[in-house]
């Protein structure tokens, strides 16, 4: 990556001050490995990672490199074979209310309104009374993503992008310390996906959110991330941790800059070498 710093210079822009490089570590992964006993497959080997408060980190790699396994372990949905994961100083040994997740599909309950779906995490953990007390907070989130007028609408009446915006609200309603995103916009058309990426960036910046994204899209990873982890398979491990030196807030116009293209080409080269091994 040194050639990116020496060959390419960013256009003159005034960057938004970012606290992530100096911020405290929120999520820590230490010497993490995962072996599936059923077939003795080593899915992950010696993964180490620190994610700081307010930082947006993406992981990218070919299918089968362990991205989904890593995300499940980070969410507390699967135990590691060795190593540990720590969020806010406490080991992650199961699902936690301070971990928010968003998946490829919106997974909204069709018999509940948009507002009721947003309040579901609170209702499940704390009961209906607590959910009712959180209605104003949920409405504020819906207003934040432009769905304030759709609070009483059912999921079947929402477009794909609107449903995923509702999913963002559901993820945020419990004020999680960590957002885990599993290709949340991969099922959307390209224009809607671009819009949702800009919305996600705006929300994360406004709320100072800490996020970890699994994606197959190089452009999506670069436009959203402070850092990108490139993973390779057999066994799954991180081969490079790339810092993205683009100012925020970012715009889609940056995709056409030489610096952006250099980063994408570098990642493509890394992944291409694996494909030919």
Describe this entry's structure for a reader.
This protein is an alpha/beta fold. It has 2 domains: 2-98 and 178-275, Rossmann fold; 101-175, no CATH class. The two termini are 21 Å apart. Residues 1-20 have low confidence and may be disordered. The protein has helices at 2-7, 67-75, 114-118, 120-126, 128-133, 135-144, 160-172, 190-207, 218-224, 258-275; strands at residues 25-36, 41-52, 56-61, 82-87, 90-91, 99-102, 178-182, 211-214, 227-232, 237-243. Helix content is 36%, strand content 23%. Strand 9 (227-232) and strand 10 (237-243) form a beta hairpin. It contains 10 helices and 10 strands. Its EC number is 3.6.3.36. Residues 1-21 are annotated as: Disordered. Residues 11-21 have a biased composition (Polar residues). It is an enzyme of class 3 (hydrolase).
* CATH class group of the largest domain: Alpha Beta
* CATH homologous superfamily (4th level) name of the largest domain: P-loop containing nucleotide triphosphate hydrolases
Mean pLDDT, to the nearest integer, reads: 89
Radius of gyration: 19 Å
Taken together, the total number of domains comes to 2
- CATH third-level topology of the largest domain: Rossmann fold
Could you tell me the strand content as a percent range? 15-25%
CATH architecture of the largest domain: 3-Layer(aba) Sandwich
How would you classify the quaternary structure?
Answer: single chain
Beta strand count: 10
Termini separation (Å)? 21 Å
Given helix and strand content, the structural type is: alpha/beta
* Strand neighbour order, sheet with most strands: 6-7-8-3-9-10
Helix content: 25-40%
Order of helices and strands: HEEEHEEEHHHHHEHEHEEH
Unreliable residue stretches: 1-20
Helix segment count?
10
Q: Can you summarize the main beta sheet?
A: 6 strands, mixed
Which outline best applies?
globular
GO molecular function, one term: ATP hydrolysis activity
Biased composition (Polar residues): 11-21
Protein name: Taurine transporter ATP-binding subunit
EC number: 3.6.3.36
